[in-house]
UniProtKB/TrEMBL annotation:
One of its GO terms (biological process) is protein transport. This is Solute carrier family 15 member 1. Belongs to the major facilitator superfamily. Proton-dependent oligopeptide transporter (POT/PTR) (TC 2.A.17) family. The gene is Slc15a1. It comes from Onychorhynchus coronatus. CDD domains: MFS_SLC15A1. Residues 676-699 are annotated as: Disordered. PANTHER family: OLIGOPEPTIDE TRANSPORTER-RELATED. It is found in: Apical cell membrane; Membrane. It is a multi-pass membrane protein. GO terms for molecular function: oligopeptide transmembrane transporter activity; symporter activity. Interacts (via extracellular domain region) with trypsin. GO terms for cellular component: apical plasma membrane. Keywords: Cell membrane, Glycoprotein, Membrane, Peptide transport, Protein transport, Symport, Transmembrane, Transmembrane helix, Transport. The keyword Glycoprotein applies.
Amino acid sequence: CSGFPLSIFFIVINEFCERFSYYGMRAVLVLYFKYFLHWDDNLATAIYHTFVALCYLTPILGAIIADSWLGKFKTIVSLSIVYTIGQAVLSVGSINDLSDHNRDGSPDNVTLHIALSMIGLILIALGTGGIKPCVSAFGGDQFEDDQEKQRSTFFSLFYLSINAGSLISTIVTPNLRATECGIHTKQRCYPLAFGVPAVLMAVALIVFVVGSRMYKKVKPQGNVMLQVCKCIGFAIKNRFRHRSKEFPKREHWLDWASEKYDKRLIAQTKMVLKVLFLYIPLPMFWALFDQQGSRWTLQATGMNGDFGIPVQPDQMQIVNPILIVIMVPVVDSFIYPLIKKCKINFTPLKKMTVGMFFASMAFVAAALLQVQIDKTYPVFPAAGQTQIRLMNLGSVPATVQFQPQLQSVDVAPKDATDYMIFKTSQLQSLNVTAGLLKKTQSLEGLLQGKRYTFAFQWSGKGIASNLIFDNVTSKPEEGKNLIRFINSYISTVNITLDGKAVALLPSLNASNYTTIAGGYQQHTINSTTPLSSCTVSSKKFGFGSAYTISINDCTQGTLNITYFEDIPPSSVHMAWQIPQYFLLTCGEVIFSVTGLEFSYSQAPSNMKSVLQAGWLLTVAVGNIIVLIVAGASKLSKQWAEYVLFAALLFAVCIIFAIMATFYTYVDPNEIEAKFDEQEKEDKKDQNDCEKEAETDSKM
């Protein structure tokens, strides 16, 4: 078709579906750990990065299996089956009703869900990692030697399919997660968010198998990585055997492999090891880069996601692929040529150093943003402390004195104080004075680390009051809001919210908190008494807030209410994450693209797969670094962890810059040409010798 083998279209569609499956699942993974399995941020981050590390370790295994035993086609098919099963198991493990026998909305057997999830993720890591080095190479095998132009176009289409799958899935699966589904109780729809990627992976497998008869299947020819490893191993072993001073030193330690391996392989291995040595600092870049899907997604959960339509925290990851599509051509077509015109020698290693610096600055930006987010979080009581808020629901100003002589507070009508912190052991009672009336409320027996609201109301007969336990100990999750109602009316009221019954409240009693979706939609509040029924539309609550709504009285069918802010809504907008995404994407474009180009330019033609494996290994090690730092650091503030990572990468950036100054660029083609020429001369000499021997035998 237009000079292209028909088989490549099956491969491109397969890659699109597989990347949709992987990135769609990964986009919602950390929130699944946090909100469904109820892991804290550190554990969720640790397991997430363990999974990503495994995904980048298994490509080495996949390459060895394909090149040494099964071949690329059979490796892709067999591991895609494993991959599909893994996605299906993960989706089943996220079904809440699987173990929710008492139908209370929470799994009764969390261990079952964890076990299924971990089995699924291990199978996915084996599948996605195992086929990673095979699919693109298998596509390249479909072309003849004279189809270089078509092969180049294929790789462009292949890369486009990767980004398209990533982009679309990062939009779709967070929206699927945000919907509610369930048999008995409605929950965030993780089964659908994981189920759609599972279906796409099954489609990828089917499409790939359908094209089977059209593929050119190259037989396994042995894996060069194994040869390199054996060469290095023999050199070390041989050097150790001849460690005595009586044996003369050799120019390079790899020369000790010359007894068993030819000079070409040894020279090629030397070139590869020079580049791999430069890879040593690189994992630190990936340690920061891959936190987009963990720490940065968790950061977004505490922010305002209103962009005209609600944006989910895990959807902010879409900024990266969008910026890549924009910035790659801009950097290649404008930035690099401009630098060249300024006569600046911007070598590949210098580019990589600058890329690492940009990534470091991205985490400085993330730290500054986190400081602003932390300012919006409420302060909850620590151990040995209790918080009390005073709420005056009456029409007369009041003064409250905490005993024994702790604090005196004036409270205006229809108003409330902020939460005040006291040592629990010191609280005995409080005295309320409103007009000529007084009342004493005992405070003994209050719980440590908890919040209370003391609501009171003056009437001609006296001061009515109620000490209410506020059972909220953290900011609402996932940007949701909490609202409750308190009845300041003289008679019992029946309250409904959006047509659903909330509570039947006697005077001065409060309902439990009701969870509502985050955003700026309004809700209908209705209050019914034996004599009247009144309705009012609520205010827009935003994201992550908690409110107590006082039901006052009714005027011509309109309900009069008063809002008391228990927890302020998230005021820092998610758009403030864009600068850190921009800096990190700048770093990725300069670092990652240049790094791959540099590696390929410095590697012999038959050793490029070794460097590809080494490059993927740096990503795996980077994710392991996140595990170590997140687990070992005792930093209580998230912004401090961001600064730590930024400082570590900046230090590594300096080390890499120093290492780069000592690197000498080589031309592998030139070195290989010398070996080719030497081999020709050796072959010629051998032929001459054979002719001379033949002549001598005739004489």
